[in-house]
Design goal:
By secondary structure, the chain is an alpha/beta fold. The protein has helices at 40-48, 70-75, 93-98, 113-118, 120-123, 135-148, 165-181, 193-199, 222-226; strands spanning 2-11, 14-24, 29-33, 55-60, 63-64, 78-81, 153-157, 185-189, 202-207, 210-216. The strands form two sheets. A six-stranded mixed sheet has the order 6-7-8-3-9-10, with helices on both faces. The protein has a four-stranded antiparallel sheet with strand order 2-1-4-5, with helices on one face. Helix 7 (165-181) links the parallel strand 7 and strand 8.
C-alpha cells in the first residue's frame, strides 16, 4: 500500500504541507477532499516525485520512494492523472495512449483490450487528434493513458472538474470497476462530495496544508466534512 508519513513540503519559504500522513490500500478508493489551495495537489505531486519533500517519508509496496525520480516511480506502477488532463493536443488518441508505454518493458507495450471496454468511445476516435476531443473525452483519454501503464497505484486529481454529467457518471463507473477488480490502490482528489461519497472507502480532508479529518466514509457526519469544502 501507499504510506505517506509526516510529510512537509515547501515552495520557497512558504510551507504547503505540514506533517501530512495518509495511506491508500490495494482494492480501495481513498478520497482526498478540501477547498482550493489547501495542499491537495501539492501532496499528489510529492507522491509522484514532481515536488521534493523537506521531511517525512513516502513508501510504496514497503519501499521508501521519496528520493526516486518521477520516471522511476512510474516504473514502480504509480500512475498520475493531473488536474487539467494534460493530454497532447496535436497527437492522435492512439498516439496519446502509446505515450503510456514509456515506463513499460518492451514486451508490455500494447494497448490492453480492457481500455476500450471501459472507454468504448476512444476506440472510434483512435485517429482523431487529442485537441479535437471534448473536455470529457479528453478526461477519459487521460485515464485510459494512465491505465496503459498497468498501474497498481492510480492517482487522479479532480477528474470531474469541468466535465458534463453524463461523462462524470462514466468516470464513476470506471473507477468503481477498477476498485472491484482489487488490483490497484486508487487515490482520488475530489471536491464534488456526492461523487466522493459514492466511490470512496476512506477519506481525508485537508485544510491549510494539514489533514484535519480522516476515516471511513459514513462514520463521520456529512456536515462535518462539507464545512471544510465550502468557502
Amino acid at each position: 500500500m501507499l504510506n505517506v508519513d509526516r510529510v512537509d513540503v515547501f515552495y520557497g519559504a512558504a510551507q504547503a504541507l505540514r506533517g501530512v500522513s495518509l495511506s491508500a490500500k490495494i482494492g480501495e478508493v481513498t478520497c482526498l477532499m478540501g477547498r482550493n489551495g489547501v495542499g491537495k495537489t501539492s501532496l499528489l505531486r510529492a507522491i509522484v516525485g514532481h515536488l521534493p519533500i523537506a521531511s517525512g517519508s513516502i513508501a510504496w509496496d514497503d519501499a521508501e520512494i521519496s528520493k526516486l525520480a518521477p520516471a522511476e516511480r512510474a516504473r514502480r506502477k504509480i500512475a498520475y492523472i493531473p488536474q487539467g488532463r494534460e493530454i497532447f493536443p496535436l497527437l492522435t488518441v492512439k498516439e496519446n495512449l502509446e505515450t503510456g508505454y514509456a515506463p513499460l518493458a518492451r514486451a508490455e507495450r500494447s494497448l490492453p483490450d480492457e481500455i476500450f471496454k471501459l472507454f468504448p468511445v476512444l476506440k472510434d476516435m483512435l485517429g482523431r487528434r487529442g485537441g479535437d476531443l471534448s473536455g470529457g473525452q479528453q478526461q477519459q483519454l487521460a485515464i485510459a493513458r494512465a491505465l496503459v501503464t498497468r498501474p497498481r497505484l492510480l492517482i487522479l486529481d479532480e477528474p470531474t472538474e469541468g466535465i458534463q454529467p453524463s461523462i462524470i457518471k462514466d468516470i464513476e463507473r470506471v473507477i468503481g470497476i477498477l476498485r472491484e477488480k482489487g488490483e490497484m490502490a486508487i487515490l482520488l482528489v475530489e471536491q464534488y462530495f456526492e461523487f466522493a461519497r459514492d466511490l470512496a472507502d476512506t477519506f481525508a480532508v485537508m485544510d491549510r496544508g494539514e489533514i484535519v479529518l480522516s476515516g471511513e466514509i459514513g462514520k463521520i457526519p456529512e456536515q462535518e466534512i462539507k464545512k471544510h469544502l465550502t468557502v
